[in-house]
Structure formats: structure tokens, C-alpha cells
Queue: 2 jobs
Job 1
Amino acid sequence: MDPLIITCAPVGAELAPDATPYLPYTPDKLGETARLVREAGGSIVHVHCRNDDGSNTHSVERFREAYDAIRSQTDVIVQFSTGGAIGMTPDERASVLQLRPEMATLTCGSVNFGDEIFENSFPIMRGILAKMHEFGVRPELEIFDKGHLANARRLAKEGLLEFPQHADFVLGVPGGMEASVANLCDLVDDLPDGCTWSVAGIGRSQLPLAMAAMAMGGHVRVGLEDNLYYSKGRLARNEELVARVARISEEMGRPVATPDQARAILGLQAFRPSVHN
Ligand code: KMH
Ligand code: ZN
């Protein structure tokens, strides 16, 4: 098996600002978190940005500050969200791609998200992919439901996406596919040949699904975007969620990937200290 790639999603966009004291809102905090995540064994940081008061923003300037803050502290793969927060416009979501992050998410279909709808019509997906091509950004396919894999194959047939790709299965969102090992196996079976994958279990499913992925040869996403708790009633810090997964993986005899090992596994170029200027 390849070394384990651990992604940390430290902020997210759907949590209330006061849900936990440990959300790293500011660029400085995000940079510090990225360094701690790297020290704990993480190799990708999935970035959403907030204003100083904790409200969501997808401003290019704020993403630039966040990117610079992360880069000043560590060599992790910086992965921008193009999902943003529910209600953001497609243009707003795609605008940050001009900063040329190494990776960015591409959610492969619409999905109910609690009482709301996370909208990703084909025109929205095509628009985001066009910007990814323009700026040379590698997608990570966010798969919340099985039909999203069929949508990705359709985009490939249209010539907008080339397989193999890296997919992240986000399981347990209320409205999306349920978080179970059976569902994870089903999705992995349905992936086109040569794809790599990770799993992001929501809430208390985060750790069990991470352990399944570690055993199956997949990769793992943890972080407060998906799960606030370390254990029942005990709020987590991002870096300790990463450290726990790294520890278990090492115990299983599967070392964790450095960022450059992760780049090699994902077919990204080796570390480039500065990419957006
Ligand atoms: N905020 C969620 C509705 C992504 O980052 O690409 C979507 C999301 C996905 O977080
Ligand atoms: Zn996200």
C-alpha cells in the first residue's frame, strides 16, 4: 500500500462561528494550524476562509492571505474549496482558482445538505472545470452520493475531465450517502481504474471510516469541517484528529505520507514554494 495521505479540513463553511473555540478563522491561525497538522502527519490542507468575525468569505484577497500564511509555515499541499458555503454564487466559488492552488475541490453533483441544497448542476461543474483548466489546478472529486461518480464519468465523456483522478468520498452529510463501510466499498468498486481515493466521514463516523480506509489502501480526511469532537462531549483540535489517525496508521504498519510523497502519489509536481505571483 502507498503511504497514507491525511487531509485536514480545519475550518469548513457550515459551522457556526461559536460552535467550537478551535476553528482557525484568520490567515495567521490557518498558517499555524497547517504547520501543526503537518507536524502531526498531515499532507493536505483543505481551505475555506472566514472573516475575522467568523463569517464566511470567498474573497480572493482573503484566500491569498491564507495561502501565503500557510506557505510561510509549511510545505503541505494547499487545496482550496470551490464548494464554498451554501448560497455562494458559482463565480464566487470559482474565483479563487486564479491563485493557482495545487489542488481544489470539484463537487460532482447537487446534494441535499441538511435543510438546504448544495447546488452543483452540470453548468456549474463545467464552469469550475473550465477555470481549473485555465489555471492548471488539479481537481479532487468530492463525492457525496453514488450518482456523483456517474456525473464525473459524464464530464469525462464530454472531454472536461481525464481519468484517473483523486476522489474524496464525503459520507454522512444529512441528505447525502450514509456513512457505512458497505457504502464506502460500493463507491470504491465503482471508481474508474487507477483513481486514488480518500474518505471524509461526518461526525462520529469520521474515525471508523478513516480506519476502514486505512485498511483498504485508501486515504483519509479529518478535521473540524467534518467533525467537532475528539470523543463524546470533548471538542477536538484539528491537529489531534490528524495525530490520532497517523498514530493508528503507523501501528498498522502503514506510514503516513509527507507532502512530497503525497504529491508523487497524486501525480502533482514536487513542492513549489510560491505559485500565485
Ligand atoms: N460547504 C459545503 C456545502 C467543498 O469544500 O468543496 C461544501 C463543501 C465542499 O465544503
Ligand atoms: Zn469544504
Note: The pocket of (5S)-5-amino-3-OXO-hexanoic acid (ligand 1) is lined by residues 13-14, 81-83, 85-86, 105, 107, 113, 118, 142 (CB under 6 Å).
Job 2
Amino acid sequence: MKQQWRGGLVRRLLLLLGACLLVGVLSGQYAWTLVVGLAAYLGWTLWQLLRLQQWLQRKQVDEPPPDGHGLWGEVFDSIYHLQRRDQRARGRLQAVIDRVQESTAALRDAIIMLDSDGNLEWWNIAAEQLLGLKTPQDSGQAISNLVRHPRFKEYFAEENYSEPLELPSPINERMRLQIQITLYGNCEHLMLVRDVTRVHQLEQMRKDFVANVSHELRTPLTVITGYLETLADNVEGVNPRWLRPLQQMQQQAVRMQNLLNDLLLLAKLEATDYPSDSLPIQLEPLLTSIRNDAIALSANRQHQVSLEVEPGLSLRGSEAELRSAFSNLAFNAVKYSPDGSSVCIRAWQDAQGIHVAVQDSGIGIEARHIPRLTERFYRVDASRSSSTGGTGLGLAIVKHVLLRHRGKLAISSSLGHGSLFSCHFPAQAVQEPH
Ligand code: ADP
């Protein structure tokens, strides 16, 4: 093909030169005939160029190129084929994009693409229904301006997306959303949002059920313990055979009461995300009174409970909740360490925030149990904790209280060498002195 148009071109030029020479011989004006001949050829070439330009300008889909001879015909055809190929490739690409868009539009989960600064780039229809994003006004807006929940702002800023976040929807308080962010490419964010209202409602029903049952059991139990106490106070009128069962019934009634109290406290902690108060809490007096309670709990088991607190430390939150968390740790240290051993309660502050730690030199915990210790009713050894009167809810309460105060619990322990339970509170939870 290439050879063909090359041959045609050479032939045409030779023909033109030959014709010019012939006319030159006849007229005796070689130079002029050559100039006229070449000018005619140039004119023809410019005309072809003009046709090409006009065709490209008015080109509608599939309109064939103008007829051309030789090299120009070849140029027209090549451009036409290139354009057809490009069109087909674009068509295929568009079909893929359409399919992806159709399938993401059909998804009930929201997909949102954010740039590295957290500005909206693209989202599907579900994102409009779940988060109230508006197309196209919200394009380029910062996601934290559209989802204004403080928990989301913290979660987004922290850039630790290993766990999903659950929030009420910004457009409907009753809709519960689960948000999961993944980083990709150049620190861009892919945000997936699921409607978990139904699961949340079921979870809420379970919590309400436990709270209601605990509440309802309280009154009959108070009556039973009341009568048991009256009987215990009048032992002289009781058949001696019944003394031991009576004692055991009293012990178990106290255990049940502790259990109900812990269940109700947990239900209360789970009902909201934040502490019931946001007051400055001095740690020194709080931990001193917890230390005294721990000594009282130890009684004649003679534990050495020491306290090392930097003076003036203060956290923001609820005193009752923090007291409950720290005393659970201190009481566990006493309960699970041998008579006369030492327990140390420490509190200090550094650049990361405030830390409260309870260390004992007791029986310790095997490493495989540590990740599960904060689960409700998880016990390392059932017989061990029933003998200490534990409810199995203590560490679950600690975990919840810390979560509400933005803190974290760290546990390190080795069997037979004691345990260290540390509560780390970030700088935001610290109350600065005025
Ligand atoms: P419990 O009311 O049974 O003490 P917790 O939730 O407070 O429940 O603790 C869960 C389990 O963790 C306990 O059953 C106990 O086996 C173990 N544990 C907690 N604290 C300590 C500790 N300081 N030393 C050894 N084991 C501990």
C-alpha cells in the first residue's frame, strides 16, 4: 500500500516535471513553466489541506473522509481509521465506566472517594441517602464539614482506621451508620458507609432487656437479703443446723446484688458515648480513698498497698465512673495476689497524657487470656473468681469507662509474677490547672 502511494507520488511529480519541460521546450520559457507547474502543485496540495481541515472541523460521527488521491488519500484514510479506533476504545471504556457506575449506584452501601485532605471527589447514590451529600454542590467540600459528629472528626483526624466507627446519620438521628475508611494510592481515602440501624436496634433491645431484668430483680433480692439479715441477727432463735446454709445464702445474695449493680452500671455506661459529667477530678484524693478501700478489702490478708501520685494531676470526666474503674483494678490486685504481697497504685503525667497504673505481685495471667479479659463474664479460672466473689464484669466496666474518657487500658502480666494494669488518658482528657 505504502509502495503504491509512493510510486503514485513519484509518477505524478515526474509527469508534472515532464509536462513543464515539454511546455518549456515549446515556449522556450523553462523557468516560468517550472514555476507555474510547481505553483499549481502547491495550490492543489493546499486545497487538499483545506478539505482535510474542513472535514475535521465539521466531522460528525462516522462521516467518511473526502476522496483524495495518492498521499492525501492515504492521509485522509489513516486519520479516519485512527479516529474509528479511538472511538471504539472510548466506547469500550465508557461501557466499563457505565457498568461500574450502575453497579455502585445499585449498592445499598455508600462509597465515597476523598482526596488526601479529606475533600469529596466522588460518591454513589447511597451516599446521598445515608449522609445527605448533594450532587454536585458538595464536590470538593471537606467531609468533616458535612459529617459534623465530634466522634467522626476525631476518628478521621486520628488516621487509625483499623476499627469501624458507628454513628447516627447526619440526616436522620434514628438511622445508625457504620463507617469504615481505607487509605489507598497517594493517601487518598475510600470511605464505606453501611446502614446498621437494624443490628443496632437488636443490640439496643438486648441491652434494654439486661438492664430491665437487672432492675426488676433488684426489689425481690432486697427483700430476700433483708429477711436473711434479720434471721442472721437473731441466730439464737434459729436451729443450729440452718446456720451454715443461712450464711451461704447471705453470701450468694450479696454476690447477686453485686452482679446486678455491675450489670446496671454497664447498661448505664453503654447508653451514651460520653461520661455522665465533665468535671475536673483531682486524682490524688480519689486514689488515696481507693487505696484506703483496698486496704479495708485486704483486711487481715495484710497486703502492702502503696500509692505514688504526682501532685496536682487532674482529669476531665465523671468522678463516679473513674472511681469505679480504678477501684476495680485495685480490688482485683488485692483479690488475685497472695496475703501480705505488695500492690502499687501509681499516677503520673508526661507528653502523651496522664497514666494510672495498678501493679501487683500476685498470681498473674497467662498471655492467651489477656486479649479476652475485658469481655463480659470472661474468667481466667471460674473457681478462682467465684472464691473471690468476683462478678466477671469488673474489667468490662473498666474498659467502658476508659473508652468514654478517651482512655485505653493496657494489660501486661506473666503467670506467677504479677500483673500491671495501666490506664492511659490522652492529653485531651487532661484537665490543665488554671
Ligand atoms: P472478676 O469480677 O471475676 O474479678 P474481672 O472482669 O474484674 O472479673 O476480671 C476478669 C478476670 O481477670 C478475673 O476472673 C481474673 O481471673 C483475672 N484478673 C483480673 N485482675 C487480675 C489480677 N490483678 N491478677 C490476676 N488475675 C486477674
Note: Residues 200-271 form a domain with the Helix Hairpins fold (CATH 1.10.287.130).
